[in-house]
Amino acid sequence: MHLKLRRKALAITLAAMLAGVASSASAGGLQALTDQGLAPTDQSVTVSLVLRLRHEAELENYVRQTATPGSANFQKFLTTAQFADRYGATDAQIARVQKYLDQHGLRGEVLDNHMVISVHGTLGQFSQLFGTPVHNYVSHKTGQRFHRPARPLVMPVGLGNNVILASGLSNEWHYVPHHTSKLPVTNLRLANPPATLSAQARTAAAGNPTATGVPGQYTVGDVANMYNINPLYQRGITGKGSTVAIVTLATFDPADAEDYWAAIGLDTKPNRITQVHVDGGGGTNGSDETTLDVQQAGGLAPQANIIVYDAPNAGSGFVDAFARAVSDNQADSISASWGLGEIFNFAALNVDGASNTDTTDVGDLRAYHQIFLEAAAQGQSMFAASGDSGAYDTVRQLGAGDGPGEFTAPLTVDAPASDPYITAAGGTTVPVKFVNSKGDVVLSIDQESVWGWDYLLPFVPSRDYVFSVGGGGGVSVYWRQPLYQFFTSGTRRSEKNQALTYNDPATGPYTYLKLPGNFKGRNLPDISLNADPETGYLLVFQGGLYSSGGTSFVAPQLNGITALLRQSTGHRIGLWNPHMYLLQNIFGYGKWSAFNRISAGNNWFYAGNGRYNPGAGIGTLDVANFDMFLRVGF
User: Fold this and answer.
1) Residues 170 and 163: beta-carbon distance below 8 Å
2) Is the pTM of this model over 0.85?
């Protein structure tokens, strides 16, 4: 393969280039801060009011019917207008909210779905409206300067019956991208990789002509080889007529995506990328995340249109980007590769004196849930990366340890992937061999396995180097197990004796939250693909060539696959989860199954066991077989 790009060392650590994103994440307000007093009251901000859905139980039932063969509503998806009329806030409810805002000198713009009102005003106006001052702060750890409410918001009586969330009064960086770089390990390298990505390497990668066959340098062509996508391409299925959307918290340069597709020899639809800058658009921290999302989704569906909704990584940015993508209803499928530990949304992590078992004040989780329900009713498939911190999702933000000044690492999952109405994308490691400087094989992974870097323990100075890097997964302690998982063998309940505790050097351990044990929660991930950076992918970013991995690659890959399925079946697919779990429950694994079982590896707690497991979910996907089942209607 000939690359018309300036080549850089593949082992370069992208995280080091953009470390500000992860290090500045707030982790639910747990970082040490200096309060610098009242923020300027005349500063302009946008606050999103998320309106309460009507008839939510009825909506959930309708979504089930759209995914149930034989139902009168099977594949009868709603338009945005139909959703607003049936389940959004009524005109009278919106008028009452707008009237109350008018009384405070504010006016909002209502999305077409009648679920979100974007309100423009000043910090002073919103401080008065919600009964709390907004202060400026500085993080001791990162030096980040931001503003946020000094106390919890008090929802006014005039809004409380209609509004479930007011988001946007904080501009503290919030979410982290779920991509990870290879770990440089002394005296350990891939067995006989080609020196360059040459024509010989392409020939060696049997099947898709854009593949390399080289772990750590895989392309979308290798994904097609691994997961049986090529039969769709051979039928002329390329995503034509489909639209994929990327919801992200950073902007990007479309030229990087075009360069990647050209470099691997992929013929793509010209001028197919549209950028929608929500709330003014995202910043540059995390641009590599957005870049890889577009490259992967658009590479697997080379003739699909792409809409990139980018928003600031602060305040209501993520909620607003999702809401806009779903309300616009132009995309058949949507993916996001940013997230945060589910438990960082809980009240006890933010409110002094709150019960340390309180999981009721869940912030953005309820907002996402309503938006994802709308997407499912409209037939839009949703995907989210499950995280790259294995079964211990807080470690990436807070670290883990038992010493002074350290946090414990409870078993936790990532949000928004934990929501029942989005497909959680997990990670695996594909077969690979490593050799030492003498050429002796010192590490061999012989079957696709749950991704967890415990296999690197013999080659690193200490466990801290690799814990808990791996595919995110586990059991939600907020969302109950959805109906589609009820009959799935291998699902788990939450483990007992899990707590987030800080070992204060001065006063001793302080527990922020005790997690519910034996809770029958939503299990994730749902489905996995290769995500281990050691067997990862090429990324073109800012004119350079890098190697990267993480579940950030899997979510957009599933997004691109959905565009292929959309063209192949002639209709939107909708929420994948009911289809997948029904197929797995009925047909299991085998030659004609839509899934490949994962029987090895672990994500530091949950192990591959040949059935559903919270390390790799149902397993990996056989796309051609999945397409066949969807086309015949099983």
Assistant:
1) no
2) yes
